[in-house]
Automatic annotation (TrEMBL):
UniProt cross-references to Pfam families, sorted A to Z: GATase (PF00117)
Gene Ontology molecular function, alphabetical: transferase activity
The Glutamine amidotransferase domain, residue ranges: 58-203
Domain of life assignment: Bacteria
Record's GO cellular component terms: cytosol
Organism: Methylobacterium aquaticum
Keywords, in A-Z order: Glutamine amidotransferase, Transferase
Gene3D superfamilies the record matches: 3.40.50.880
Keyword check for Transferase: yes
Official protein name in the record: Glutamine amidotransferase
Keyword Cytoplasm: no
Signal sequence region: none
Amino acid sequence: MVHLLVADGNDRAGRARHLTVCDRTSAETYAGILRTLAPDAVCHLVAPADADAVLPLALAECDALVLTGSTLHVAEGGPAVTRQCELVRAALLAGLPVFGSCWGVQVAATIAGGRAGRNPRGPEYGLARAIRRSAAGAGHPLLDGRPPAWDAPAIHDDAVIDPPPGSRVLAGNDRLDVQAIEIRLGEGVFWGTQYHPELDLDEVAAMLRLSATGVVEAGLCRDEAALHAYADALRDLHGDPEGRPDLAWRLGITDEVLVPERRRREIKNFLDRLVRPRRAHG
């Protein structure tokens, strides 16, 4: 049995807003995927942004920590950010494997001495396109199974601007140099992606609706009606991926995004290549 601590990156307001468009929180989404990929996993959920949050079990009893996305901004600081930074730092110093997407990457990079903030090249909304391995990413187990270039779900304004000293940037694209990264702190290892391997297309659609103003302001849609039409198409493609090749063609979405096993490769690689070996060797 594998015990996974799943930390929701949102504060209470962020979780409530998320639930207006989704039927589950970000942590619940991750937990469901982790149980699918590792049927022997027991997921323990926590919301470390909250002042009254209590870990459901001690870090020493965990096999790994997973940190979700968030609407918070690391650069703005504040108690909700600091508490999450402290949890990730403690987990890494305790020797735990840690995985994070989007917000998780930004937190891990910050505590290790890097810098996260608004991406000067602009946001990515919907999909990060044409991601490619760096030289350091060639052969790295986090990216096992990925083709030479791939797309992935992405929703972010912020990103890792300056990677921490000693980290390994594993992948990037023309919008962002740090799309995947390995960070070591103490005895712990962090693997993460700025993109969201955990998100199904219906959840991407929901996140776009929450970000409608930002998408329009970035010039990616002419108006909110166009944004909602795009989100509708993503939702419909999710509902019938095999029966709507017209939508996949129109949206430029390939099997790396459509097929769950391919979209979630990084999460499975984390479990198989970091978490299970560590547990096996006690």
